Fold this sequence. Notes:
The protein is built from 20 helices and 19 strands. It is of the alpha/beta class. It folds into three domains: 12-207, Transferase(Phosphotransferase) domain 1 (Transferase(Phosphotransferase), domain 1, Orthogonal Bundle); 221-241 and 488-546 and 577-671, Protein-Tyrosine Phosphatase, Chain A (Alpha-Beta Complex), CATH 3.90.190; 283-481, Leucine-rich repeat, LRR (right-handed beta-alpha superhelix) (Alpha-Beta Horseshoe), CATH 3.80.10.10. The protein has an eight-stranded parallel sheet, with helices on one face. Helix 1 (46-65) runs antiparallel to helix 3 (122-139), helix 8 (221-231) packs across helix 19 and helix 19 packs across helix 20 (659-671). The two termini are 13 Å apart. Residues 204-246, 263-286 and 554-575 have low confidence and may be disordered. Residues 1-199 form the Protein kinase domain. InterPro entries: Kinase-like_dom_sf, Leu-rich_rpt, LRR_dom_sf, Prot_kinase_dom, Ser/Thr_kinase_AS. It comes from Trypanosoma brucei equiperdum. One of its GO terms (cellular component) is cytoplasm. This is Protein kinase.
Amino acid sequence: MKFVSHPNLIKLKEVIDDVESHKVYVIMEYCAKGPVHVHGEPPLPPEKVRKYGCDILSGLLQLHAQYLYHWDIKPANCLVDDNDVAKIADFGACGSSTRTCKVGGTPAYSCPEQFAGTHIGGHVADSWAFAMTLYQMSHGTLAYSTTSISSLRDSMLDPTPLPIQEGVEPELKDLLRRMLNKDMSQRMMLHDAMKHSYFSGYVTQSYTTVEPSNESAECITEDLYARAQQAVLRGKRVGDFFHGVQFVRRIRRMMVRHINTHDVDDDDFFPELREASSLESTQRLVTNEADIHEVHKIVSSFVGDAVKGALRIDGILMTTLHSFVAEAAPLVSKLCCSNNKLTCVGTVDFSKFQHLRVLQICENSLRQFPLDVLHAPRLQFLDLSHNHIKDIPPALTCARELQTLCMNHNQVAYVGCNECGASVLSGESMQKVVLTANPLRHLPAEITSCSKLELILDDDPSLLEEWYASINQSTSVSITWNDIYPCRVYPEVPLFVASKSIKLYNLTILEALGTRNVVLTQFESWLPTGEVNSAAMEEHVRRRQKESVRVNGNDSECEIRSPVVRKTAMNVGDCLPIPNILSKSVCRFLHSYFILEEKTSYTVSAYGALKNYLTTCLGRNESVVVFLDERRDSQNTRDTIVAVLCEVLMAAKGGKRTLSGCISDVVDATRGLYA
C-alpha cells in the first residue's frame, strides 16, 4: 500500500520489523478527526455525507484501478484528516483476490451474496459496503439492528428491500435503492455510482484530473533531471505493483533462489574454469558407496516408521534413482528428489506406488521426460522444474489423474499433440501447467482441445501475439502471464525497460527481443563502469572468475573430500556467482554493455554518458534493454535512469510527448502487465 498513492487513501509511512521482539510496526498517516461516523450517533449533515461519500468512492476506484479490493469498507475504516478529507484505512483484508464465497470483513457490511455463499468479486463486496457506509452516515444506524449473524443472514437473504428513511435527500435515496438492490443483476456498482446525479458537480469540481500544461521538449538537462527526480518517486519498489499473481511471484523467487544456491546452467559458465576448480569436474559426477548407503538408510528409516507420508532425498548425489527406493512404495504419498544430479529414474517400477500423489524431481539433470513416473496410478502433482527436458511426450494424456504439471526452467521449445491430434496437455484431469523459463516460441499446439486448463507462461511477445489473435476462439483455457519480459515504452522506439531481478534474465529473453545492447547498474563493485564492448566484458568476467578460483581453491578441496559429496560443495559458481546476463553465451550475443556506477549523489557526467550511449544505439537503429532493479538500485540511480530515458524518448518522439506524460509512460512500463 505504500506505493498506491491517492489523496483518499491513508498513506503508509513506514514498516519497522523489530526482529528481537518478533513484531512488525506499521506507521500510518495520522487522521485527527477519526472515523467518518460512529454507529448510533446522529446522522451527518447532508453535505458531509455527500463530501465523505465522494472521498471514499474516489479512493475505492483508485484501489480497483490497481486490481486491489478492500474487502472491509465501513465507517470505522474511513478516517477524516485535519483538512476534512475522508481517507480509506485498515488494509488488513485488502488483497488482489477477485472471487470468494466467504463472508469477509465485517458481516454487517457484507452483501447478500456473501451470506448465500456465492462466489463474488471484490468490486461487488466493496460496492455494497460503500453503500452501507453511506446508509449509516445518512441514517445514524444500519438497516438491521441485530447482534445475531443468523438473524442478519435471514434479513439479508430476504428479498424485501432495505428500509430507507423518508427524510433522506431524494437523490441519495435513489442511489441507495440502486446500490442496495438485493438482486445483483439489477444492482448499481461503483463505476456507475460515480456518474449518479447525487455526485454530479461535486465529483467534477473536486476530482477531475487536470491535464498538465505542455512543456518544452528542449528542456535543459538539469531541469529535466530535477523534475524527473520528483516524479519518479511513483516508481519506488515497482515490483509491489504486481497484484493477483502470487503464484508467478513465487516461481520467480524460486528461480532467483535456485540461481543463488546452485550451479549455473551449462551454457552460462566458462567451462575451462570448471576444470580449474580441482576435483569438481571429476568427482562430482561419480556415485560412491557412501551416497548409496545414505540413500538406503533414508529409505529404510522411512519404511521402518510404517507411516504414510513424504519421502525426501535431497542433496545426495545419485545419477539414477536406485531400485531399492521402491521398498517404500506401499507407504509413500509424496516423493521428493532434488539436487541429486539425476539423469534418469532408473529401473524403479512406479506402478507399485499405489498411494503416490505428489512427485517432485527438481533441480536435477534430466534431459528426457521420465515416462515411467506416469505409471503411478494416482499421481496428481508432477514437478519436474529446473531440469534440461526438451519435450513433453504424448503419453502425458494417459495420466488419468494428473492435475498439475510443473515444467518451469527446462528447455521445452515446442508443445505438440498426441496421435489423435489433441494437445499433449489435454489429459482428462489436467488443470494447471507451468511452462515459464522455457524457450517457447509458440503456444502449445491444439490448445483448444484442453478443457479447464490454466497455463502459466512467460510474456514472450510472440506468445502474447498468438494468444490475442486466437482469444476469440471457443476455449476454456486461461493463461496467467509471468510478466518477466522487458517492456517497450513506445512501439516506434526500440527501447525496453526491465524491472525484475537481474538474475532472472537470460539469453532466451534477449534473443526473443532481438536486442544487442543492455544497460545495467553496478550491482558488483568489480564491474567496470561506462560503455564496455561484449568481448571486453567476457574477458573481464573470465579474469575475475580465475581470481576467485585461486582465492577459494583450498576451501573447495576440503569440502569435496567429505565422505558424502553434496550439492553444496564449492565450485566456481559458488566462488563468484554471476547472473546469466554476464554469461559467456550472452556476452557473445550482445554488442555492448553500459554499466552505470552507483553514486550517492547526482553527477552530470553519468547522466551525459548514459544519454550518449542510448542516443548512439538508437541512432544505429539497435535496440537497448535498460535494467532497473528497484530492490537493489539506489533512489538516485533510479532517478538518473528515468530522467535520461525521458530525455532520449522525448527526442526520439520529436517532442510529441510532454515531459510529465513521458515520465508516466516510463514508470508504467516498469510496472508490467499487472500494475
